[in-house]
Write the structure tokens for this entry.
Amino acid sequence: MSFQLTFEVLGARAEPYAAVPTLTFALRLAETSGQAIHTVALRCQIQIEPRRRPYSAAEEARLLELFGEPKRWGDTLKTLLWTQAPLMVPGFAGATEVNLPIACTYDFEVTAAKYFQALDDGEIPLLFLFSGTVFGKNGSGISVEPVPWEKEASFRLPVRVWREVMDLYFPGSAWVRLRRESFDALHRFKARRALPTWDDAVEALLMAAGEAGEVGEAGEAGEVGEAGEAGEVGEAAEGGDA
């Protein structure tokens, strides 16, 4: 007799003590035919289903880079692969609950992080696709079967939970990846101006480029908007194009 497995995602929480930003999903597995499970070598693919939620005007603007103009979203709003993860499920009879840890990134070059960051509130529609191998107990030993490919479970992850993860590991900040040449040019600019932080260096460049309104109150901290910044901006730009 084949194993009859069902899967359900019960919830998600920020993991406060991981080495990297981590979301922990609670999974429930059930075997409905009455057979005992020795172990399950599970593989889980998690997809984002952007079509299954509404978006505010502000969110639409932030998602322009991913999906283009909203009028084209009928063609461009496609399912996104977030991640894949393995999990060893211990033996059980009937049903069991296990935790699936998923490492998260704040790198905005990664599509999933860019999508999550664009959302103000609400829920993120996820689809969990399961595969792997089931090892079961029988009278003479162990039986082995694949997890059927059609096994899946939907879950709506609250945006606030993802933000809790980021706030635990990167409180009040965000990450931007630069080319090595651009970083070196920015580092020289920061050192020559004796600016104490990277924020101050970026604010100085924004002010020199005429973006003082975007910097706002934070830009007032350094008195760095003097004439002559444009030369440094040009140097940084040339360094980034090297």
Remarks:
- The mean pLDDT is 85.
- The two ends are 65 Å apart (CA to CA).
